[in-house]
Design goal:
By secondary structure, this protein is mainly β. The chain has 1 helix and 62 strands. This is Fimbrial isopeptide formation D2 domain-containing protein.
């Protein structure tokens, strides 16, 4: 049970029925009732006129507890609705034998030490203690010079040790039924009733005024009601009622003033109507003693009296001015009974009885008396039924008794005092005890349990429970809110699912999406509960900071001090994917890789959390890899081998791993691949893939462009000049450059130079050699197997490294003139196919001088000789000139 150490600051107590007393068959039951602390008293049977020593008053005692962890507010002796049967402990007070009491139980009041019962017809007052021991009998005093006492003890009220007794049918100054009151101090055994009278000739001393029919004691005032007082209104006598106000203490009590109605407002019953009551039918005093509230149940708000609408008027007790006029909309006989109590916030509350139009049903309206005035807060009625005359049995009966009880409870080793507000209300059939209701008890649970870590895609099921520890007769209406502002941000779709409520009749809660709150309003049955269930599915996010968050929410209700909360740290499965070179080194994402190379994808799946994961699914989409590389799904390696289940779908090219990872577990999956040869490569020259992770962020997409190597080929003569022609018998020096154009070391470098079209006119290649641009690289040397020159190196070529492969061939002396030496280099790592063509030429001096060649040569010589002679003649002529 939640702590009762503090009561929420409210201006009106949350009252619910905790007990029901009496027997509907009893005559005039409940015409008087009173309460103090852990005791209450009510009239069981009012003694009949003319009968002697009949009538009964019951004293009930609270036997429950308010200790922390246990509260049984219904455990009152005599409680008809108590679950364990009617608890024992009721004390029944009856008139003492030989007292001649008649009308015993007409009224009852209680204090700290006394239970006081009046006997109207015999005009006696009996004082008991709570054990039922008679302490004293107060008889009607003797008549005075101004008065003849009648109906002494028709009304009684007790405050501390001071007892006020009304005698409303007394004749005063010759006015029959003018009425008066008496006071005495019960702490003084010899005290006798002292009259309280308005001065002689005061207008309140009027025949039929019935002064003393209602009474109230303030701190330093006595207020006495005269509900039969008549005022001339519009030329006819009307019952308006009034209040007499006295001040002082002890023997120094003086009359101050009369408080009456403003006859220009509303209308009033005729003076000859005996079934009505004017102002003063009921009286209550504010806790600070400055305001008097008086019921005026038979006035009419309309201009012509036709209806006992009623009202409650408030007056400043010192200034004598009216300060408020309180009505209950739709009520009749408003103010037949009123009372002032306290709210937990410390302000006063006003309880006003009223009736339905036909008088068949009684109710009590509650008002908070604050700086804003009298503000309506709640209508009180019995649990489960309509009670005739609830709060006001009739013209001269019925009670509303607000009181309180302070208990001490131990809260975590500290003693706390808690004040409990109570209200005793009588009805025609039963007497009802209402009490400020114990706070509702709230629970919140989740699966997984609060404090555990949850992973994306995982469902969190919540259960909210509202329990009412109050008696079955005390349902509690409440507004409950589950704050989802710390939940919906982490919910997949920002929605809740599996919404349920038990019992179904309680009504489903509503999700306020804007406020991110789950709201439920309804009534929780006494000793019962309402349960609400819902779930969310945790969403995943690609931002790493998302997983530093906590899913947290609190459950609260306006009728509870509890605020249970659940929280779940977000967990994630980390996945990474990296491409490894043949030597096992990692290649950076975006690294350019070579063709015809062996690589491996290394997939790492790791649970770094303190909680085991639910079943996790990791999907590697290889569809953008298989068009550029080969892999064999049977060669996939898992470490540790028994971890999870792995499968490959050849249609979608997806590798799927499913498994559960304990806290700290790490799984490594190696997927060997081999990039296509250049002649087979038909893809996008890039391997792209990532990992889809249902329990955490997806792995970053791994993108590795494929570039390979570049090849060039040149031919040189013996002098080192690049050539396109060569003569017989001369040597041709070939150079092939193989450059690693990737950003990764190549562990499979090779080329082939096809000399088929060269060797027909040359010798086999000699001086085969390979030199790397990296002096530290001991590169492999080329080999020749006719007609192909081969070079292959697996020791690893670094990015940008160039290997030059060279060899020489000699043109045969009988090589065919104008033949071309044609050869080309190829490599599985390159798309290049450089081809070199060198033409064989024959020098002129090697040509035979006969036939056409000889004639041509002769003509050329003759022409040359003539050109020389001409040049000499021209020079001679210039000199002569």
């Amino acid at each position: 049970m939640p702590s009762l150490a503090s009561v929420r600051a409210k201006d009106f107590p949350d009252l619910g029925q905790t007990a029901r007393f009496g027997d509907a068959a009893n005559d005039r039951q409940g015409y008087g009732a009173a309460a103090y602390g852990n005791h209450l008293a009510y009239v069981v049977d009012q003694g009949d006129p003319g009968e002697v020593e009949d009538g009964t008053v019951a004293v009930e005692t609270f036997a429950g507890s308010y200790a922390k962890g246990f509260a049984d507010t219904a455990k009152w002796s005599g409680n008809l609705d108590y679950d364990g049967g009617v608890p024992s402990g009721t004390v029944l007070l009856k008139p003492p034998s030989g007292s001649g009491a008649s009308g015993f139980g007409y009224g009852v009041c209680v204090g700290k030490d006394y239970v006081v019962v009046s006997a109207k017809w015999s005009q006696q007052v009996f004082v008991y203690n709570y054990s039922g021991l008679l302490l004293r009998t107060i008889e009607k005093p003797s008549d005075g010079s101004r008065y003849e006492i009648d109906n002494f003890a028709e009304s009684i009220v007790l405050k501390g040790n001071e007892l006020l007794i009304g005698a409303p049918n007394s004749t005063v100054d010759g006015n029959e039924d003018a009425g008066m009151a008496f006071r005495l101090d019960l702490s003084l055994p010899s005290s006798i009733p002292t009259p309280i009278l308005a001065p002689q000739n005061d207008p309140s001393i009027q025949a039929g005024a019935l002064v003393g029919q209602s009474l109230a004691i303030a701190k330093d005032h006595y207020v006495i009601g005269a509900p039969g007082y008549v005022t001339a209104v519009g030329g006819k006598n009307c019952i308006t009622g009034l209040l007499q106000v006295f001040s002082g203490a002890g023997t120094s009590v003086v009359f101050e003033r009369n408080l009456t109605v403003d006859t220009t407002k509303g209308s009033y019953p005729n003076a000859d109507d005996v079934s009505v009551a004017g102002l003063g039918r009921s009286i209550a005093i504010s806790s600070d003693g400055t305001t008097v509230y008086a019921g005026d149940p038979s006035c009419d708000s309309g201009p012509v009296w036709s209806n006992q609408t009623g009202r409650v008027m408030a007056f400043d007790i010192n200034a004598g001015t009216e300060t408020a006029n309180i009505n209950v909309e739709g009520g009749t006989y408003i103010g037949g009974e009123i009372a002032v109590g306290k709210a937990p916030a410390g302000n006063d509350v006003l309880y006003v009885s009223y009736q339905s139009g036909d008088g068949s049903t009684g109710q009590v309206a509650g008002y908070a008396l604050t700086s804003q005035g009298a503000e309506y807060r709640k209508t009180l009625s019995p649990y489960g039924a309509s009670e005739p005359r609830f709060g006001s049995l009739g013209l001269l009966g019925g009670s509303i008794v607000p009181y309180s009880f302070t208990s001490e409870i131990n809260v975590d080793g500290e003693i706390k005092q808690v004040t409990h507000q109570r209200l005793l209300v009588t009805g025609q059939n039963f007497v009802y005890q209402l009490e400020d209701q114990l706070p509702l008890e709230l629970e919140k649970a989740s699966d997984p349990a609060s404090g555990q870590r949850v992973f994306p895609g995982q469902k969190i099921s919540y259960r909210l429970k509202i329990s009412n520890p109050n008696p079955k007769t005390s349902p509690v209406a409440t507004n409950a809110v589950d704050d989802l502002s710390g939940v919906l941000n982490y919910a997949d779709g920002s929605q809740i699912d599996d919404l349920s409520v038990s019992p179904n009749a309680a009504g489903l809660p509503m999700l306020d999406e804007a406020a991110k709150k789950l709201k439920w309003s309804g009534s929780v049955p006494g000793k019962g509960s309402v349960s609400i269930g819902y779930s969310i599915k945790v969403k995943k996010d690609e931002a790493s900071t998302y997983y530093d968050s906590i899913i947290k929410n609190g459950f609260s209700a306006d009728r509870s001090d509890d605020n249970p909360a659940t929280e779940h740290g977000l967990g994630k499965i980390d996945v990474t994917k990296v491409l490894l070179n043949k030597d096992g080194t990692s290649l950076a994402n975006g690294a350019v890789v070579g063709r015809d190379q062996d690589y491996s994808y290394l997939i790492t799946i790791e649970n770094v959390e303190d909680t085991a994961s639910p079943e996790t699914t990791i999907v590697d989409d290889m569809s953008d890899v298989v068009d550029d590389a080969d892999f064999d799904s049977s060669k996939i390696v898992i470490d540790p081998p028994a971890s999870g289940r792995i499968s490959y779908d050849s249609a979608s090219h997806k590798i799927t791993w499913v498994g559960v990872l304990s806290s700290g577990a790490k799984i490594r999956i190696r997927v060997p691949v081999h990039t296509h040869k250049s002649v087979d490569a038909s893809g996008n020259d890039s391997m792209k893939n990532g990992l889809a992770n249902d329990r955490g962020p997806d792995a970053e997409q791994v993108i590795d462009p494929i570039a390979g190597s570049s090849l060039t080929k040149t031919a040189y003569n013996a002098q080192g000049s690049e050539i396109s022609h060569i003569a017989r018998g001369k040597s041709v020096h070939y150079q092939i450059t193989y450059k690693n154009e990737t950003s990764a070391t190549l562990y499979n470098a090779s080329l082939a130079d096809d000399l088929s079209d060269v060797l027909q006119n040359t010798s086999d290649p000699v001086n085969l050699r390979a030199v790397s641009s990296d002096s530290s690289h001991d590169v492999a040397q080329p080999t020749f197997t006719s007609p192909i020159l081969h070079w292959s190196d697996t020791s690893g070529m670094k990015p940008g490294e160039v290997v030059t492969i060279a060899y020489d061939v000699q043109v045969k002396s009988d090589a065919k003139s104008n033949e071309n030496l044609i050869n080309g280099a190829t490599s599985a790592q390159s798309r290049d196919n450089p081809e070199k063509s060198v033409k064989i030429t024959v020098p002129i001096h090697q040509l035979p001088m006969s036939g056409g060649p000889l004639i041509i040569m002769t003509l050329l010589m003759v022409v040359g000789l003539m050109l020389v002679i001409g040049a000499i003649v021209m020079k001679h002529n210039r000199q002569i000139a």
